[in-house]
Amino acid sequence: MPGTSKLVKQRIQDETEHLTRSERQLASILLQDYPMGGLQSITKLAAAAGVSTPTVIRMARKLGFDGFPALQDALREEVAAQIKKPISKRDGWVVDEGAEHPLMRFAQVVWANMRHTLERTDTALFDRAAAILADTTRPLYVVGGRITRSNADYLYNHMQIIRPNVTMLGNSANVWPQYLLDMDQSSVLVIFDIRRYEAHLEKLAQIASERGVTVILFTDQWGSPIGRVANLTFNGLVEAPSSWDSTIALQLIVEALIAEVQGARWEESKERIEELEAMFSSTRLFRSPT
């Protein structure tokens, strides 16, 4: 079964305060073009960072690797994991079919994903995101990919009830420029993008960022390329014993944010919910309990 060992960038982030000034320069170069930046030759990487090759080797060892080649092996494994097709994802799982019921096997993996995601999530980052989402002076736009569209829909449906000025981008990327016309420095764009990362979402994020939009990204443990322009990024573990990735860990963060935003503006949210319920009652869209 695939493990939950830390990615190279997570090791770098964990060790940052223990790195020397030269090693921090190197770390910055590695993270700027992650993971490809670390796959160039040791001499090219050292030159790009303005450090010596011994510094590269020393930092690799600080991160827990035997040397630079071992660090590069880890990066290559990450790249291979990012581009897995659905069939190969399932083939990567080795489970004891007779150990327990499939439901419990799957649940154990999901629970582990949630636990490790929470361990790696910065609560200060969560608080910043919640404050931004609760600010009704900032128009909120939401979009997801082919698989993550349902996560985006869920966030949109609840945010639209809690606060005004929330827009879900249409399914067709052809009409996204029309939404971009209204986006400016006061706007917030929430994007969901997990492997195999979608180029049109990356382009949307780039243009939005150029317009001064605050970009909040929900992605997997490897990190969508959108992370290069995102202002806030949430990484969730997504591997599961299936041909498809599980977004439950990301959904945990989404639902917690919804609860926090609603709590932060409860009086206003309560009025909107009561007004909405009155509309439902008058239109008889839902059956009343008897």
From TrEMBL:
Protein species of origin: Ruegeria pomeroyi
The keyword Lyase belongs to this UniProt entry's keyword annotation: no
Name this protein carries in UniProt: MurR/RpiR family transcriptional regulator
Protein keywords: DNA-binding, Transcription, Transcription regulation
Record has Transcription as a keyword: yes
GO biological process: one example: carbohydrate derivative metabolic process
SUPFAM superfamilies, alphabetized: Homeodomain-like, SIS domain
Domain of life where this protein originates: Bacteria
Entry's Gene Ontology molecular function annotations: carbohydrate derivative binding; DNA binding; DNA-binding transcription factor activity
UniProt-listed CDD domains: SIS_RpiR
